[in-house]
Every structure is written in C-alpha cells, then in structure tokens.
Amino acid sequence: MKTKLLALVLLYTTFIYAQIPTNDLIGSYYFNNGSPHVGSSGTENFTPSVATATSQVTDRNGGNNAIEFNNALFRSNLDFAQGTTNVNMHYSFWIKTNQSDANERTIIDDSGRSGANFSSTDRGYFIFLKQGKVYFKAQFRDANNNYTPIEFSTDVTVNDNNWHHIALNVSQVIVNTSYDFVGEFYVDNVLQQGAINQPFTGGNVVSFDRNGDVTLNNNKDRNLPPANRFNGQLDDLHIYNRTLSTAEQTSIFNDDSNGISGTNPTSLPAIFSYSFNPNANFVNDETSTVDLTQNGASIIDIADRDAIANSAISIPSGANLTRPNISITGTNESNQFSYSFWLKTTINDGNRRTIIDDSNRSGSGFTGNERGYFFYILNGNVGARVRFRSPLPNSVATSVVSRGVESTNVNIADGNWHHVVFTINNEDAPTAGNDWEITT
C-alpha cells in the first residue's frame, strides 16, 4: 500500500504546510481565499487596479487559493539592494495557462516602459509568456551610461493548462575584472539550458531596477492592451533580494507542493488534507472525503507562520476536531501510512498530551485488548504509541503487542514552527512474524 500523507492539527497549537528560505526574502504572496492580495509578515500587500482584478480559483492542491487575472495588481518599488559589484534577485511562482500565441504577455513587470516594450532609454525588467515559454527581458544602464538589452527564456513550454513552477535567478558577477550579467530559469525544479551569461563592456550595472510600481499582469502605467497581458492563473509568488541555490529552490518547489517531494499532492492517494484556509478552516482539501467537525470550546482562527490572517487555527483546552474513521487498507504482511503536519507550541510538561488519535482506548493509555495508535507531545518531544493484534509465530493465537517511540529527541516546545512526520510501517519479517517500525 502506498504511503498516505495528511495535514492535521495539534492541541493548543496551529499548523500550515509551506516552508521557504527566509534570508533576504522581500515578500511572499500565497493568494489565499479571503485575503488574496495580502503579503507575508512585513510585506507590502498588492493593490487591485479594479475591484475585480482577480478571481479566486482552485490551486494545484485542490484548495480555492490561487488567482486568475482579470486586470492588474500593483505594489510600490521592491528596491533590490545594489552594490558596486553585485546585483541579485530571485523570483519563484506557480503558473497555469493554455496561451500559445506570439504576443509578449506580461506576468510581472518592474520597469520604466510606458508601452509593450522598452524605448532606447527605458530600464528595468519584465517576465512574460510567449508561445508557451516564460521569458525574462531587461534593459540596464551601465557606468558609462550605455543601455544594454537582455533576453532569455525557458527551454520547455508550460502552456498545457497544468500547474508549473517557475524559478528565476538574476545576478551581476565579476569575471576576471569584467562584469557579467547571469540569468537562469528553472521549470519544475529542472535547470533550463537557455541560461545567459553576457558581459558588460561599460563596467558594472549602476541602474538595475527603477523606482516605480511592481505590477502583475500589466506595466507600471497599466496601459497594456489585452493582447500583452497574461491571461492565466498564478500562485505562491516569492521574491528575494539575492539569488537562491539549487537546494533552496528545491526546498521551495517541494514545500510549495504541500511538502510532498515536489509532487502535486492531488496525484497521491491522500486520505485527507487540511490546510486551514480562511473561511474554510475545517474543509478537506481532498474533496471526495469528509471535513472536520468542531466539538467543545470554539476553535480560534489565527494568522499562520507567514502572517496570513485566519489561515491557521489554535485549539484551546476543552476543544477538539473529529472526522469518521480512517480506512487504511493493508494486509497481514504490510501496513504503511504517514501523517505530516506543522506545529507550534510551548507545552513542556510531563503529561502525554494527545495530538492525533485513531484508537479505541478509553483512557490516556492502552489497557486490555484496546488497540490503534496515537501521537502525542511529552516533555516537549513528540512521540507515537501503537497497539495491534499480531499472530504469534507457529501459533494460531493472537497477542496484543505495543510499540512506542518517544520522539525525535528534539525538544520542539520553543514557540517556533516545526514540521513533524510520523511513518508507521509493518513489513513482513521472514523469521519473527510481523515486525512494526515507527519513525518520527
């Protein structure tokens, strides 16, 4: 049986599923339902050019947390730091489109152009779609007041109406005392061969980006004709004031895919997935199965770890969430499943405090013939307990066997976010009956 991956909740804590590098992060925009234009903590929000500038659409994870453009979004200048020897930036985002025409359809613009292209003295850059490929076009002014155009693209097309991850590194580097512009695209975590390395004969770039609005789906003057606007969907935009390493880009690609190895979670056999989005906190992202039910005291909506309002939950004492039994299909020889979630807590006492329970126990631990499993926190460590019936070797009788692991040996009760994965695996052992392994 294939591994199941889920996102759940923690007593007295909150959960989300995305984690990205934070050093030199200018802003993150998740376009969540209920707050589609709100940036992460300390980030300026985007402003819609008209009230209906975007529509909320289904993202790659099945939630209603991506946007489709009807008009432009804008925010003030990003102000990338520029030294005398280096200029660096990184964009990361997901797009979905079926456009295939030869028009330069703007996705992101940070330039001084007043039309569809650069004049001889315009500077800045924009990212656009053309014939199904993603392009970067820029015009920079060097120390000798020369204006140099730059353009490069992805190797592959992305206009198959599926979600694709785009990552872009742009930098100025010194090579043997000369200044080179270096740019590279990644598509779905694969480096594109169309990277550019172009020297500047006039010295270093002294004007990389210009003051003015950063605009999505238009230029700064918001006067592009419809044929030059990106008619597609956008999600999870991250902007950095530096280039990112391959490992960091892989981290974004993986974690923005719900933490499931860069694979769209909807293609995996998830039993259920809860992302606790605004206005739909207990709704299962896997639409074929059931939502959570609130019991007892009221669950509290709070901001998530990216400061997106009402996108995580806190469960106070006296409250819980339930759903009907999880059917994990296995055999006598094999049973495998996993739980994945983010949590934040300061609880650090000697009580075994239940996080998730799927057992028939009537008390805080197992007694008699009770069986099942539960996950908990104890002295700041997370752990798991499992109790199951197992046939004894060379016997028709069954016994109730307990297994437990006390945690990762890392105290997580520090008030910060931590990602936890429990994997419970029963594989047939050739000489000793069924052997269970619990991994935290």
| Estimated radius of gyration | 26 Å
Assembly of the depicted chains: single chain
Strand percentage lies at 35-45%
Order of helix and strand elements from N to C terminus: EEEEEEEEEEEEEEEEEHEEEEEEEEEEE
Q: How many DSSP H or I helices? A: 1
How many individual β-strands?
Answer: 28
Distance between the termini: 19 Å
Structural class assignment? mainly beta
Range of helix content: under 10%
- Look at the structure and give the mean pLDDT: 75
- Major sheet: size, sense and barrel closure? 9 strands, antiparallel
| Low-confidence runs of at least 5 consecutive residues | 1-18, 257-269, 330-334, 392-399, 427-438
Looking at the structure, what is the overall shape?
Answer: elongated
